[in-house]
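Tokens in:
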């Protein structure tokens, strides 16, 4: 069979690359039923409430924003985040776990993307899903870098009513470029495909478009003059799953009306894909032969090696700075802990305007602040520079690895450093937390305990009552002794009085 040569793959994402409907149903359905049964809310009323929530944010994936559901009372909303016991997840936690655990690639996707990247093929994603959730799936599935670019609509962001555990840039891909489309972008939209080809200077006959919807994806590819590939494995619409989705969809009445009008207008059209992949994404190799999008010039290899070497040197530089910061952090931690041991042993405290403040209280909170400052400088300063250097080196390695297989240092370090403990991936962001948080926690624990520590076997109230100086004075006090160290300015005895007292004792 004579295979066509292609240099560019443009593909739909939801239900073509990953199983979106299965992920959504297996997380939302148990979540919906748990709320309905626990709080005895009528089915239709709860669906109507979720539909309003989804329409507000233009996506069915903000169901976790339960604080905005009007059918729930404040007590019920608090109950959703509360764990029934130590060994059971809360309703909200279970929903998030189901969403993550049911997110999976379709068969053959990962191996096919790897093979296409090895051959230098341009890979572009085009989706209707909002940018935030697209980046969320890209990161969780480890696909950053496999796609050269993804076109996705702008979103309204994560609802402000929800607690965010990661910083704003956490979900941003390091290697895959994200290009934003208008919020109202809907398929079929052949203009977007034409823009993609124009952006990357690809001729329509050198590209294929893969999608799981005949009336949207395949029609769009045909209108744009691109070879169409129908992903039949992703088009199966389960009656129960799809029925629940349509009952809470974010689509407005206008969207539904537009779809009906479009369907009526094209009801007599016969749409068929040029190629069909039945069970696996990798079946595209049965129909096409893929070639590099850009042919690499071997004469540039010396310049490439120079740039790659410089990128690796920059990585080493910032990595060295990061290690120095962490060594300084441990040195500061050890020094402050030793100081705290001394002030506890000597029972040192301060009187500030008549109020006793233990040195342990002051130094422990100061220690937490110092470690937090090291953390800020490490993570939000030099680590960003390091990530930039790594990203640049990876770009060079991925582009030239076929001609120069030896330049794989950054890639291999990345693979080796992706440690997993109890199914949790310890990426660089999490390793930061594992290093700094225990140190800060120790100081906060000492700070809290300082309010319950008493001196010389006395209880706290007795200590506060005894030997308190006049209000308005500031006095250092070593509570190992019975009397405070006196301020010479407040001394009532004169030198002559002291001499007379000593003379009296001798007589």
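Residues out:
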């Amino acid at each position: 069979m004579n295979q066509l040569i292609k240099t560019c793959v443009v593909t739909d994402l939801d239900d073509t690359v990953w199983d979106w409907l299965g992920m959504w149903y297996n997380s939302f359905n148990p979540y919906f039923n748990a709320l309905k049964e626990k709080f005895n809310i009528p089915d239709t009323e709860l669906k109507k409430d979720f539909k309003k929530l989804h329409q507000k944010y233009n996506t069915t994936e903000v169901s976790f924003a339960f604080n905005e559901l009007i059918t729930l009372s404040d007590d019920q909303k608090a109950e959703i985040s509360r764990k029934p016991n130590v060994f059971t997840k809360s309703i909200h936690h279970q929903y998030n776990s189901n969403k993550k655990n049911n997110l999976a690639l379709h068969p053959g996707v990962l191996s096919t993307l790897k093979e296409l990247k090895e051959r230098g093929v341009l890979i572009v994603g085009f989706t209707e899903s909002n940018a935030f959730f697209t980046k969320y799936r890209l990161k969780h599935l480890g696909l950053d870098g496999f796609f050269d670019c993804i076109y996705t609509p702008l979103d309204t962001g994560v609802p402000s009513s929800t607690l965010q555990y990661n910083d704003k840039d956490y979900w941003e891909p390091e290697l895959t470029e994200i290009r934003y489309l208008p919020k109202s972008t809907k398929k079929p939209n052949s203009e977007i495909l034409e823009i993609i080809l124009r952006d990357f200077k690809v001729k329509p006959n050198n590209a294929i478009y893969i999608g799981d919807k005949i009336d949207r994806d395949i029609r769009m590819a045909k209108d744009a003059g691109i070879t169409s590939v129908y992903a039949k494995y992703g088009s199966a619409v389960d009656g129960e799953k799809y029925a629940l989705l349509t009952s809470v969809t974010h689509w407005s009445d206008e969207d539904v009306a537009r779809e009906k009008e479009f369907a009526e207008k094209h009801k007599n059209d016969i749409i068929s894909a040029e190629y069909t992949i039945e069970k696996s994404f990798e079946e595209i190799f049965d129909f096409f032969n893929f070639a590099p999008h850009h042919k690499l010039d071997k004469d540039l290899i010396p310049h490439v090696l120079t740039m790659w070497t410089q990128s690796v040197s920059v990585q080493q530089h910032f990595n060295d700075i990061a290690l120095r910061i962490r060594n300084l952090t441990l040195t500061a931690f050890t020094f402050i802990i030793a100081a705290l041991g001394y002030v506890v042993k000597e029972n040192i405290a301060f009187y500030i305007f008549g109020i006793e403040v233990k040195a342990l209280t002051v130094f422990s909170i100061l220690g937490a602040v110092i470690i937090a400052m090291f953390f800020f400088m490490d993570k939000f300063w030099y680590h960003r520079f390091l990530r930039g250097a790594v990203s640049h080196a990876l770009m060079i390695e991925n582009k030239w690895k076929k001609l120069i297989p030896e330049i794989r240092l950054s890639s291999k370090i990345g693979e080796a450093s992706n440690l997993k403990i109890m199914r949790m991936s310890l990426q660089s962001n999490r390793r930061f937390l594992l290093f700094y948080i225990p140190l800060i926690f120790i100081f906060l624990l000492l700070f809290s305990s300082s309010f319950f520590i008493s001196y010389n076997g006395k209880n706290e109230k007795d200590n506060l009552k005894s030997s308190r100086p006049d209000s308005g004075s500031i006095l250092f006090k070593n509570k190992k002794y019975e009397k405070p160290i006196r301020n010479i300015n407040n001394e009532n005895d004169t030198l002559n009085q002291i001499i007379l007292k000593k003379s009296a004792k001798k007589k």
